[in-house]
């Protein structure tokens, strides 16, 4: 059951930390990871002051795809492609597979950004 509290007399429901899960998406873990990858790409593009056209050249995407990505619209771009974009922006990507804790029967997908 989700925790609720009152803020200035208005009931507020505490989120799970994954807005996609809170909205009921079945692929919520994957969507959250893609959103985090897209946010990091957008941060790097902004930090380097790249135009969308130049970012498209570097990332190997079309300018309209870069525009959509920078606006948080990443459907149609695979996680693998987003990871490749990060390497093209000069970032190392490490994928770690480890055993699931005994407290859970299924693994989960998470992203840590250093």
Strand and helix map with partners:
Elements: E1 4-7, E2 10-13, H1 19-22, H2 28-47, H3 52-59, H4 63-70, H5 79-88
Antiparallel strand pairs: 1-2
Helix pairs in contact: 2-5, 3-4
Query: In order across it, which strands form the biggest sheet?
Result: 1-2
CATH topology (fold) name of the domain at 17-88 = 434 Repressor (Amino-terminal Domain)
Radius of gyration: 17 Å
Q: Which structural class best describes the helix and strand composition?
A: mainly alpha
CATH class of the domain at 17-88: Mainly Alpha
Biggest beta-sheet profile: 2 strands, antiparallel
End-to-end Cα distance, whole Å, is 33 Å
CATH superfamily of the domain at 17-88: lambda repressor-like DNA-binding domains
What is the name of the CATH architecture of the domain at 17-88? Orthogonal Bundle
Q: Roughly what fraction of the amino acids lie in strands?
A: 5-15%
Query: So what's the overall shape?
Result: globular
Helix content: 40-55%
- The total beta strand count reads 2
**Which runs of at least 5 residues are low in confidence (pLDDT < 50)?**
none
Reading the helices and strands in chain order gives EEHHHHH
Summarize the structure.
With 114 residues, this protein is mainly alpha-helical.
Could you describe the 3D structure shown?
It is a single chain. The protein is mainly alpha-helical and 114 residues long. The chain has helices at 19-22, 28-47, 52-59, 63-70, 79-88, and strands spanning 4-7, 10-13. The chain has a domain at 17-88: lambda repressor-like DNA-binding domains (434 Repressor (Amino-terminal Domain), Orthogonal Bundle). Strands 1-2 form a two-stranded antiparallel sheet. Helix 2 (28-47) runs parallel beside helix 5 (79-88) and helix 3 packs across helix 4. The mean pLDDT is 91.
């Amino acid at each position: 059951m989700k925790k609720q509290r009152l803020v200035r007399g208005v009931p507020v429901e505490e989120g799970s930390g994954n807005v996609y899960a809170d909205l009921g998406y079945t692929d919520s873990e994957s969507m959250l990871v893609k959103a985090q990858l897209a946010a990091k790409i957008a941060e790097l593009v902004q930090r380097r002051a790249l135009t969308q056209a130049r970012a498209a050249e570097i990332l190997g995407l079309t300018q309209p795809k870069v525009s959509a990505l920078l606006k948080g619209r990443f459907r149609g771009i695979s996680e693998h492609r987003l990871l490749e974009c990060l390497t093209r922006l000069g970032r190392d990507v490490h994928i770690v597979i480890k055993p699931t804790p005994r407290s859970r029967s299924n693994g989960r997908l998470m992203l840590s950004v250093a």
